[in-house]
Amino acid sequence: MLPLLLIYPLLAVAGALTHREIFPLAALLLLLTVVMLPRLAARRIGPWLVWLGLLFTLFLVSLYGFAGLLLEGVPILINALLAYWFGRTLGTPEPLVARFVMAIEGSARLAQPGVADYARQLTWFWTLLLGAQAVLLALLLLCAEHVGLLARFGIVSPLPISERWAAAWLHVGGYMLLGVAFLLEYGYRRWRLRHLTHPGLHDMLLQLALKWPQLSRGYRAASS
Question: What whole-number distance in Å separates Cα of residue 148 and Cα of residue 69?
């Protein structure tokens, strides 16, 4: 799925720069297919019917010129859902990053000095960063010159933002920010918890991918 995901931002930026409906439509179709690919691979009729129905709906939406608007809302939705996913675990004994630690390195790792506190702090960090990103992206979508929602409804934006800068951040910059934040946090974690040994970045990402199902349900729930 990774090569397909790498094509997605290219299509999104092409649509923002050319204003041709075919590019956002292709990006939405690609994203929908990637999301549903595991269910489609099971070769059951239900997911295939849902997929075909959604494809037809997107085609109808594109006929009315709204594919681009839907595409611009995707990054906002992704960041908002991720912020909610992290944030809703802060009120529990098992914040989301603690689940990551237990899934990748085991519960004994979480009991080591400083790990549990750092896991909760890091859950707060991702909640706030993703929430702030969702707000920023929504602001860009509203206030972008010529193509922002305010401009489309004939309302003068109180904070005019360059159309190209808004499109670049909506479809590329926002994802790059999360990648850079992840790498910087990984380096900071190794320094802050330098009294402990750490798995390599490749091994950590591999274990994270392998344990993803239990992370989405909660580590203890999946292990019971």
Answer: 9
What is the C-alpha to C-alpha distance for residues 88 and 63, in angstroms, rounded to an integer? 38
Task: Give the type of residue at 84.
Answer: Y
pLDDT on residue 198: 76
Amino acid identity for residue 78 in this structure: I
Give pLDDT, residue 94: 85
Look up residue 152 and give its DSSP letter.
H
List Cβ neighbours of 70 (8 Å cut-off, separation of 6 or more): 24, 28, 58, 61
Provide DSSP, 22-56: HHHHHHHHHHHHHHHHHHHHTT-HHHHHHHHHHHH
Report d(CA 189, CA 104) in Å as an integer.
15
| Single-letter code of the amino acid located at 42 | A
104, 211 contact by CB (below 8 A):
yes
Calculate Rg over the CA atoms of the chain: 20
Is residue 184 very low, low, confident or very high in pLDDT (cuts 50, 70, 90)?
very high
Among residues 98, 109, 92, 84, which one has the least CA distance to residue 219? 98
Measured CA to CA, the distance from residue 94 to residue 101 in angstroms comes to: 10
Does the pLDDT at position 83 exceed 60?
A: yes
Q: Is residue 202 helix, strand or coil?
A: helix
